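hey
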């Protein structure tokens, strides 16, 4: 009887995993199928196109500067991650390892910043970008994206920084290390899983951001891929553009999948760190 229950539980778990996998992967699969169709073929339901329109992927780059948009997204997302992680590491060291008055209030203020929706700060951020002369430039996006990436990275890195043994810090102080040396030479190598996890999540958030990118850029050469895809609806006058849109969406999604696969071990370590003490 126990053996039967064991196999029933195993079968049920396998079915559950299969359903979840199909549920999560089907949208991407259907995007790939749709990206290989043109015209009225988009309205035909089939597991795979009979005549795949691979030229959609070529047209994405030839009919508009989509390659430039990709480079813009890579540059902006990378700069956001680097600046956010640098500021988060230094801020988390102060918030987690140094006792000072108002530390809890400062943490709550950082958390409060992340609670405001983007639309609530859009007008103020627009005026700041215009005053700094950054409108229609990539630094404007880097600056504005820090509003939602920095609070998240600071909170996560502070949590990880608190879990590090105090004995390491005390030993470093005895050896004459400065706070800067302790932060970057002692703690930073131990924070690799946390850096990878928070950095990847910040990269995805910056990569997919649409509202600020649409508001603070004007020319096609300064746009990122979410805005370029959204404005692709008027690119073709003779045929439905959904095949091109799906092709562009697949191209944009592939780098994120590759990053997750490359850093999956560090991501798992970062997500599970601190779950077991001892």
């Amino acid at each position: 009887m126990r053996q039967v229950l064991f196999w029933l539980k195993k079968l049920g778990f396998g079915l559950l995993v299969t359903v979840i996998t199909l549920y999560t992967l089907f949208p991407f699969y259907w995007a790939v199928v749709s990206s290989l169709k043109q015209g009225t073929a988009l309205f035909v339901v089939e597991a795979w196109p009979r005549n795949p329109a691979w030229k959609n992927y070529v047209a994405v780059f030839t009919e508009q500067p989509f390659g430039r948009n990709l480079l813009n997204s890579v540059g902006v997302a990378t700069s956001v991650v680097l600046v956010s992680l640098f500021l988060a590491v230094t801020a988390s060291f102060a918030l987690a390892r140094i006792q000072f008055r108002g530390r809890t209030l400062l943490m709550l203020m950082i958390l409060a910043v992340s609670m405001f929706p983007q639309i609530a700060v859009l007008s103020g951020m627009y005026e700041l970008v215009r005053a700094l002369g950054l409108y229609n430039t990539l630094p404007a996006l880097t600056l504005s994206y820090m509003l939602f990436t920095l609070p998240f990275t600071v909170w996560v890195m502070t949590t990880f920084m608190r879990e590090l043994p105090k004995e390491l810090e005390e030993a470093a102080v005895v050896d004459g290390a400065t706070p800067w040396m302790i932060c970057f030479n002692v703690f930073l190598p131990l924070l690799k899983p946390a850096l990878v996890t928070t950095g990847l999540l910040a990269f995805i958030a910056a990569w997919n951001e649409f509202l600020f990118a649409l508001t603070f850029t004007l020319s096609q050469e300064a746009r990122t891929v979410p805005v370029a895809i959204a404005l692709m609806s008027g690119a073709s006058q003779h045929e439905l553009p959904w095949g091109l849109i799906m092709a562009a969406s697949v191209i944009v999604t592939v780098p994120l999948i590759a990053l997750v696969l490359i850093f999956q071990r560090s991501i798992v370590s970062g997500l599970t760190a601190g779950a077991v003490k001892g």
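The domain at 64-234 is CATH 1.10.3720.10 (MetI-like fold). The longest helix spans residues 2-35.
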